[in-house]
Write a sequence for this structure.
């Protein structure tokens, strides 16, 4: 049994499109919302508020959190639905591909309208476009992620998930590079007359185009129906070698041992996604309004975190082979907690640079982001395979829905909760404390309740056999 790396990379184009869109969405949209609500509530732009009364920026974060949470609430409902529907779908192009193609094209069409409505201060139009994008990305996301375990035997999924995530981070990097040169902070800090729409429009257009291209590459190279027939024997052998307490049987209820394992993983996942999403949602505002630095620094943080994540994804499968998936995830959570502890002590420098009076950026925060990127890569790489390990090939979409139900419910709660914490504390510095406490709780839940069941030994191809087709 040997992982087909070429095919796995091609499947990774689905994840390329997902992370590409989320990176642009999470980097730009919270700041769009902050700026537009500041205008409505105080008749001042967020740049003017930052200069006169920065505490008022914190007072609109709970509204920003509600809007971001509504998107995630819709995802919480829709992801399991689309997962179960795709499990039961049969078409000439496969069971996942119709959802992937429809979701991609509609989301890509709507995405560039988000900054367009923002630029013209149309909050209703912007929120509607955000909702359309999220709705069709939910149609896309679950089937796209389920595609990898559909055609990858269970013992090989951790390594395959590493490749898939690396492809995703390449998508995120493509969006991030644009953010370095097209600075959102320059747009936000400019007067209404000096704001140039292309500064914020280009990243959304490029993301849409690359999403469509990635979907086309996937469609023309991965033939679902053909592969499901060719890989039937390998998938059956993967079931036999699965890292689970009791064998999976679709004709019987899920065993108590496997159910306990599933609930423990999902509970811990809920907590670490509350922490991770809190950082991801508010880091752009944290850099602009607390560190008072350029938004390009957020993009550099993302690139450094992405590079560290790539290292984590590339090594997580091999680490899991040696110590098991449980201890690989536990190690990643512990490393991430250490990063957040360091972040608590990183403060704005106060050294003014740049034409907008921005502060110089603390180098230590770059180190924190690399630590966090590596740690969470170990977590994400092994957690999804652990969930779909507990089901047969007939229910992968459904169990992918469980995985995303836990993550999206966390992402529904955390923006609002943290927004209220910001308003109550009046301090941006609570962000790393909040994330650190939740990650520590996740570590405690995971290490105490999840069993470390190592997969049975897989005989890898050796010698000339290992040179076979990828």
């Amino acid at each position: 049994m040997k992982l087909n790396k070429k095919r796995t990379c091609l499947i990774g184009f689905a994840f390329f499109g997902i992370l590409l869109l989320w990176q642009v969405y999470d980097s730009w949209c919270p700041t769009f919302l902050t700026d537009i609500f500041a205008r409505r509530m105080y008749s001042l732009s967020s740049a003017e508020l930052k200069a006169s009364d920065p505490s008022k920026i914190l007072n609109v974060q709970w509204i920003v959190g509600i809007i971001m949470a509504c998107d995630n609430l819709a995802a919480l409902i829709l992801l399991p639905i689309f997962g179960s529907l795709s499990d039961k779908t049969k078409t000439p192009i496969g069971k996942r591909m119709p959802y992937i193609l429809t979701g991609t094209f509609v989301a890509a069409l709507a995405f560039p309208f988000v900054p367009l409505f923002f630029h013209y201060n149309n909050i209703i139009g912007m929120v509607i476009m955000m909702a359309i994008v999220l709705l069709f990305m939910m149609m896309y996301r679950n089937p796209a992620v389920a595609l990898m375990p559909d055609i990858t035997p269970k013992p090989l999924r951790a390594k395959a998930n590493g490749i898939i995530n690396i492809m995703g981070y390449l998508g995120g990097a493509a969006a991030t590079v644009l953010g370095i040169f097209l600075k959102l902070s320059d747009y936000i800090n400019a007067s209404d007359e000096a704001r140039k729409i292309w500064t914020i429009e280009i990243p959304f257009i490029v993301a849409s185009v690359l999403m469509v291209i990635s979907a086309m590459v996937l469609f023309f190279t991965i033939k679902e129906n053909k592969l499901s027939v060719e890989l039937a024997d390998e998938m059956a052998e993967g079931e036999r070698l699965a890292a689970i307490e009791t064998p999976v049987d679709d004709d019987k209820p899920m065993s108590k041992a496997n159910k306990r394992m599933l609930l423990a993983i999902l509970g811990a996942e809920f907590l670490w996604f509350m922490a991770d999403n809190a950082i991801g949602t508010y880091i752009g505002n944290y850099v602009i309004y607390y560190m008072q630095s350029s938004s390009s620094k957020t993009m550099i943080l993302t690139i450094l975190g992405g590079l560290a994540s790539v290292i984590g994804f590339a090594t997580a499968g091999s680490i899991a082979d040696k110590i098991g998936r449980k201890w690989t995830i536990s190690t990643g959570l512990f490393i991430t907690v250490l990063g957040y502890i360091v972040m608590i002590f990183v403060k704005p420098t106060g050294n003014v640079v740049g034409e907008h009076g921005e502060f110089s950026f603390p180098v230590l925060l770059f180190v924190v982001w690399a630590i966090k990127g590596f740690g969470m890569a170990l977590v994400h790489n092994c957690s999804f395979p652990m969930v779909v390990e507990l089901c047969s090939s007939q229910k992968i979409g459904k169990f992918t829905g469980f995985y995303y139900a836990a993550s999206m419910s966390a992402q529904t709660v955390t923006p609002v909760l943290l927004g209220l914490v910001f308003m109550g504390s009046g301090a941006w510095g609570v962000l790393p404390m909040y994330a650190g406490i939740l990650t520590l709780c996740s570590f405690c839940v995971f290490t105490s309740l999840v069993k470390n069941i190592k997969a049975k030994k897989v005989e890898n191809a050796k010698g000339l056999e290992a040179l076979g087709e990828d």
